[in-house]
Amino acid sequence: KAGVTQTPRYLIKTRGQQVTLSCSPISGHRSVSWYQQTPGQGLQFLFEYFSETQRNKGNFPGRFSGRQFSNSRSEMNVSTLELGDSALYLCASSLAGTLEETQYFGPGTRLLVL
Amino acid sequence: AQSVTQLDSHVSVSEGTPVLLRCNYSSSYSPSLFWYVQHPNKGLQLLLKYTSAATLVKGINGFEAEFKKSETSFHLTKPSAHMSDAAEYFCVVSDLRGSSNTGKLIFGQGTTLQVKP
Question: Is B92 helix (H, G, I), strand (E, B) or coil?
């Protein structure tokens, strides 16, 4: 089975712009979660989608949003980019997103905001 | 609230010697615990997980971890380090908050493992 894929792998944007990142989960997985990784804050949960519905949300401002499509692919959007949004954005998928399940991570999208 | 504390931000060992990466957790219920590894410029790979079955969990690449409820610990060990083990390791707890029976992952701050020849 193919793993979790994320596109693009690298992005450079300037402050004030917006960006959309894409994640394709493992085939059959319906839960997709997004995480932000920065040197200062570590890995932080952004949100989780299941069956096109946001089920969990982390403590991030409303500039961060996401959606999931009927084929379980997910996108996250960051509007009005700030320098502090520079990070590695990781997507993870699992069958149903329950507590015990393993989440499988993609390689990430590295975003640099100038 | 659930949380994890990785007690060492950096661990250095010589190749062929044992590895010990320490993790304490805080949880108000029986947690699911994981160790993930991240090699430079790569995503996260699951090493092993504990989900209330056997307290000694064996993972990939010779790693194992023991769940000790009385000590609220989930330390990661390996008998003999290999150069390829050099990476960042994350102890993770699954957080019950939010929707019922769905988890989001709470990550520790990470431990960088250096393996010297």
Answer: strand
Residue of B nearest to A89 (CA): B43
Q: Across the interface, do A108 and B90 touch by the CB < 8 Å criterion?
A: no
**In Å, how far are B40, B68, B78, B81 from B18, measured between CA atoms?**
22, 20, 6, 6
How high is the pLDDT of residue B101?
Answer: 54
Closest CA to A56 of B105, B99, B107: B99
Q: How far is A17 from chain B (nearest CA, A)?
A: 25
Residue B103 predicted with pLDDT over 80: no
CA A6, A86, B47, A101 torsion: positive or negative?
Answer: negative
Are the beta carbons of A105 and B45 separated by less than 8 Å? yes
Mean pLDDT of the region A53-71 = 94
pLDDT digits (tens, 9 = 90+) for B28-68: 777 889 999 999 878 899 999 998 778 899 999 999 999 99
Q: Which of B43, B90, B110 is closest, CB to CB, to A108?
A: B43
Q: Round to whole Å and give the CA distance between A22 and A109.
A: 9
DSSP A81-114: --GGG-EEEEEEEESS-BTTSPPEE---EEEEE-
Give me the pLDDT at residue B109, please: 95
- Is residue B26's pLDDT more than 60? yes
In contact, B35 and B60? CB cutoff 8 Å: no
Chain A (16-35) residues lying within 8 Å, Cβ to Cβ, of chain B: 31, 33, 35
Q: How many residues does chain B have?
A: 117
